[in-house]
Amino acid sequence: MASTTPGYTLDFDTFHNTINNVLTRTQTTRHTLDPSTEVPLPEVPVATQDDVDAAVRAGQAAFSAWRERPVDERAAHLERFADAIEANLADFAALLGREAGKPVQAANMELAFALGHLRATAKLRVPEVVVEESEERTASVRYVPLGVGVGIVPWNFPVLLGLGKLDAALLTGNTFIWKPSPFAPYSALKLGELGALVFPPGVLQVLSGDDGLGPQLTAHPGVAKVSFTGSSATGKKVMASCAATLKRVTLELGGNDAAIVCPDADLATVVPKLGALAFLHSGQICMDVKRLYVHASIYDAFLTQLVAFVKTLKMAGAGDPDAFTGPVQNSAQYARVRGLYADIAEQNWAVALGGLGGEGPHRQAKGYFLPPTIIDNPPDASRIVVEEPFGPIVPVLKWSDEADVVRRANDSMMGLGASVWSADVANAERLARRLEAGTVWVNSHFELAPHVPFGGHKWSGIGVDWGVEGMKGWCNPQAVWVRKL
Ligand code: NAD
After folding, report:
1. I want to staple 195 with a disulfide (CB 3.0 to 4.6 A). Which of 32, 204, 313, 410 is the partner?
2. Where do the catalytic residues lie (predicted)?
């Protein structure tokens, strides 16, 4: 397939790294499998240390001119980049669907949000702040770019998470190397090619590789900053590697988000929302609802309605336009999550819906499908409550004492998001403010916007992405003292 829009024509069948605006090949290549069908996808490059060195050199060379351009000019480049993506939108949606196992509506949603993110971020500015102004002197703080930035992203939102780092990095005057996940490198590589038509050489580069590439980038002395999104376990390795050269680091890590449903919540309203928020992208979103705490007085009714609602969510391959959610994204994750399903019988958990026994796309010979599964009130210490499943399986837990449910929601090393659901908004906000998470919501969850920063507390991360606060993470603050003699 190929886009036909003049100026931004792309071939979506062959894939290259983009280094210094040149499309490069590597001696070794690899490919992934379409998670809906297990059909092999095209070959992608496996970058070497030489490729990393070349990209870092090009990024350094481009930095001095790029940082000197007026911010409005850098913003105009981001707008043009968004136009170029938009010109290829249908092809990107199909590609993203195939590589990530996203049904059409989910792929379109990610792309629409990513485009909106580019355009909205292009309008943001990091203000210079005058801290003191007197007859004798002025002291102000400005924010200056760092140099070559690296964005390392996971496979669950391969476009949005990369673009959401790239836009802030470039707008603040850094150059950027994008390292997609080896499980979902395709869209990022095409976006790199498209970037070569928009940005000066060395400003945006994309490298795909195997498991060795991330460590090569985090260890490279020419890289000034690493912004990482992925698991907490890998985040710790990234931070340790970056420490050797004192790189700036932002870490967006795993989550185990709790949602607390209060006794006065209107079930007809909250059940469909929470059902969708728990199973969106088959539970493979850092901010999916992963622990549902429901008040004992409404627990049975809630569970019955939740089961009925989740049964209406169609799970099917990326090609099915009616599918709400698709397969688990890769075989390793599939094996891991299947282990949780295996625990159902072993741990004697009560199953309200799902498990591996029933009918569903998991019966197909191909595709990494696992049925939406709801576990009824397992013990707090069970794996399904303590660990981040990152698959379509969620526990519903009973609560009766407010202080106790806040304690249980906070009893986790994770602290990404949390929410409270109630008709009494003021009381819900009071509870939400007691939750230990980087984002708390009342009567919603996973509500995000390009101008609102997000990040994790505890083992869910360090620093924030998005918004002006996220942009500051791509800068060094500089204090400027001017004495008026
Ligand atoms: P992962 O940690 O396995 O991999 C993430 C990225 O890190 C990949 O690009 C991978 O190639 C790279 N990587 C692996 N080892 C590395 C190393 N030693 N040095 C440098 N880079 C390395 O995560 P995943 O399985 O791809 O993604 C799922 C996880 O991501 C979940 O825990 C999920 O909650 C989390 N996540 C967090 C957010 C957030 O915003 N907080 C968003 C999406 C996903």
Report:
1. 204
2. 252
Q: Is the CB of 218 under 6 A from ligand 1?
A: yes
For 264-285, the pLDDT digits (tens) are 999 999 999 999 999 999 999 9
438 domain residue, yes or no: yes
Residue 252 annotated in active site: yes
Q: 10 Å Cβ neighbour count for 230?
A: 22
Considering the domain architecture, whether residues 285 and 159 belong to the same structural domain is answered as no
The domain of 284 spans: 258-450
Q: Are 439 and 454 in contact (CB under 8 A)?
A: yes
Amino acid in the structure at residue 102: K
Q: How far is the CA of 231 from the centre of ligand 1 (A)?
A: 4
Which is the closest atom of ligand 1 to the Cα of 181? 9
Distance between alpha carbon 242 and the CA centroid of its chain, in Å?
Answer: 21
**Could you read off the pLDDT of 390-440 as tens digits, one per residue?**
999 999 999 999 999 999 999 999 999 999 999 999 999 999 999 999 999
What gap in Å lies between CA 201 and CA 210, rounded to an integer? 24
Assess contact for 378 and 349: CB atoms under 8 A: yes
